[in-house]
Amino acid sequence: MRAARRRLLPRKVFSDKGASRFRRRRSARIWAVVEEPVTTTVRDHNGRVCRFSGWVAAPGEPDPVIRVLGPGGPQEFTPTIERSDVIASLADPRLTDSTVGFELYVRLPGFEAERLPVALEFAAGDAVARSSTYRLVRDVDPLAAATYFGNSAAKRRLARAELSGRGLEFGALHLPLDVDPQRCEMHYADRWTKPEALEMFPELRRSYAERMVEPGVIVDVALDDLTQIDGERFDFFVANDVIEHLPDPIGFLANVARQMKPGARLFISVPDREFSFDVMRNLTPFEHLWSEHLDGVREVTDEHVVEFLTGTGIDVPNDADARRTLIEMHRARSIHVHVWDQESFDAFLDEVIDRLELGLRTVSRLRSGEAGGSMVYVLEKG
Questions:
Q1: Is the pLDDT of residue 28 over 60?
Q2: Does CATH place domain 2-140 in 2.60.120.970?
């Protein structure tokens, strides 16, 4: 058991007695591990959000809480993730609930200093333990840090609870949605084959080649009307962080809804501006989207690309050739064309469904504050 514990707990563990290594003893009332970030230097992705994950358990004590201590003021969270591996390793009969894991997306105020200190405090009853102090560092390429962040635990739980049958996911690349494999048979659609996608995104080839899915359906959701997809074959569709990349997101929703059979579901996830590298960009007005939909826009304009580049802090050269090369590269790689926050996307979705009479209703949803910065919806065709 000791060897297994060392493998499970490779990083610092804290108790109210200040233990810096795991030791099972009667005086230790709080056990906690910060698994991510792995060092005390945190590289954030937009200066407003920082991610922490790990677990905390307090045998024989009240349910523990995690407090974030930083310039934004105390923020309090409770464990929400089942960690049966932790419970098995601790092997304490007083720990009967495996929900000891946490995944926190901590919102922070804007700041100018090079390093912003943040610490986690674990509390259970009158016992309190403090983690190391983490320092937020703003010396990282925001696009590289944020683009491949992964899906939150809340999003994964919702997908496993709400989706079953045969599903088709658009644009999964190396991060396919985590569904219940006992209930779901997944298929994938994209505009690139797997080799083409790895060529387009060399950073994925270096780190995520094994996780990249091979699409069985080649389709460009920005250009095609999806009539080549037999909607009767699928019980649900997934657009996980896809719609913000499209020049006509209204058309995409209409095309998917047209292919959905009665009772089919659409799982859609969209990044909230406040939690992403789009934080300094303007929200996209609905009437702009409606106008471009009526005009049949199918390609991302230069103006959209330049707005994205300048809004995310990328310098656009004055030299015509260099400017053209930069624009074409980002257009090919697929930018965030449009930007929403929670309020504006709620309104966008309601307006599209109503104006186009898509026959979709919301059966479940997660707000961005609950799902790691993603606005998540499960829609069902009537």
A1: no
A2: no
pTM above 0.85, yes or no: no
Intervals of CATH 3.40.50.150 along the chain = 145-381
Cβ-in-10-Å burial (0-12, 13-18, 19+) of 130 comes to: middle
Domain 145-381 has CATH 3.40.50.800: no
Residue that has been written with the tokens 């094994």 in this structure: 210
Do 57 and 95 touch, CB atoms closer than 8 A?
yes
pLDDT tens for residues 253-276?
999 999 999 999 999 999 998 878
How many CB atoms neighbour CB 83 within 10 A? 21
Start-end ranges of CATH 2.60.40.10 in the chain?
Answer: 2-140
